[in-house]
Each structure stands twice: as C-alpha cells, then as structure tokens.
Design goal:
Arp2/3 complex 21 kDa subunit ARPC3, 8 helices, about 70% helix, about 0% strand
Length: about 200
C-alpha cells in the first residue's frame, strides 16, 4: 500500500524519485530534530521530548525504507556534531551516553512502523494506535536495555522506561488520531477529483 510519502510525485521514476526520496528523508530528520528540542524540563537522566512522536510519524509517513534511512541520517547528523539531539551536545561522544539505546531504537522503530503503515495500519485509529505503540515499545526496550548497563536494571526500568509510558501513551494517541484523519482527507479529495 501507499504511504503519505508516496502521495508526493506518485509517478516519479528515476532521478525524480531519488530527489523526492532525498527531500523526504531530509525533512524527516528536520522534524525529529525540532521535536527533540521540545521537552519537559527537569525529567531526569533522559529528557522527555516530542522526539519519539516524530520518529514514529516519520516511519509511518515515509514507509520502512525511507523512514529507517531518515532516522539513520538523523543519527549521522548528530554524530558529526550537528545539534539535532535533545541534549545541548552532539558528536560521536554522545553515543557513549545514556540515550544511545533510544537513538538506535529510533531506526528500528521507524522501520517497523513504516512496514506496518505499508500494510495499511495507518488508515484506522485502532490499528494506528497499535502500530505506534509497537514503535514506542521498541524504542523504550532498546533504551532501557542500554541504560541498564549504565545505571542498573532497577533504575533503568523506573527512570528509563516507566517514566516515559504516560507521555508515550499521549504521543501515540495523538499520532493515531492524526494519520487516519489525514488519510480520510486524502480519500475525500480523491473522490472529489482533487488528487
């Protein structure tokens, strides 16, 4: 099935398709970077941000391949020193910190959410919320495992997983409301001859 990314230049082939995909991948990195800076202050070792909301949305709108490439590019941007992460620092040393597991989880979550979206899970609220829950759980699982190696299992679970569950529930509900609604608008335009 098509994803939202496929709606842009649907007949694009060859170089035009590569340019479209490159623009979408770059736009995905920018969305995640902006959402990384929107955070709740004073939330402990790992900040609570809108970053995971953007990660799953990028995966769902771009699909598995482009979504994973976008998040891989995002990690590369941060590794070379661009200020795209939630914290005030960037660079390769950032990957030795407490958030590395979450960052790696971004790529996997974008791929899995993108694959589910390609199968139509982004068209209805119930399926979309399950799809976004899977994405958030992947990020939290990888993040929690990495953090456990740094601060111990108990602290990793309480401060690296459980603390994020209410925010994750809110973010996946918002994403699950947005995407099916957007598809309804697209189908409405389709029927009226707008697309």
């Amino acid at each position: 099935m098509r994803t939202f990314g496929d709606l842009l230049s649907p007949g694009a082939v060859g170089r035009l398709a590569l340019v479209r995909d490159g623009v979408l991948i770059l736009a995905g990195t920018m969305l995640v970077a902006v959402c990384a800076k929107i955070q709740i202050p004073g939330t402990g070792t790992v900040p609570i941000t809108l970053q995971t909301f953007a990660v799953v949305l990028v995966g769902a709108t771009l699909g598995a391949r482009r979504g994973a490439l976008s998040l891989s590019a995002y990690l590369f941007e941060g590794a070379v020193g661009m200020p795209v992460f939630a914290g005030p620092i960037a660079g390769a040393a950032y990957f030795a910190g407490p958030t590395t597991g979450y960052l790696v989880g971004f790529v996997l979550a974008a791929f899995v959410v993108g694959r589910l979206a390609e199968r139509g899970w982004d068209r209805r609220f119930a399926a979309a919320i399950c799809m976004f829950a899977v994405g958030h759980l992947l990020i939290l699982a990888l993040g929690g495992m990495w953090l456990a190696g740094q601060v111990g299992l108990r602290l990793a679970i309480t401060h690296g997983v459980l603390v994020f569950l209410p925010g994750a529930a809110w973010k996946m509900t918002l994403a699950a409301a947005l995407l099916p609604s957007a598809w309804k608008c697209v189908h409405g335009l389709d029927r009226s001859g707008g697309i």
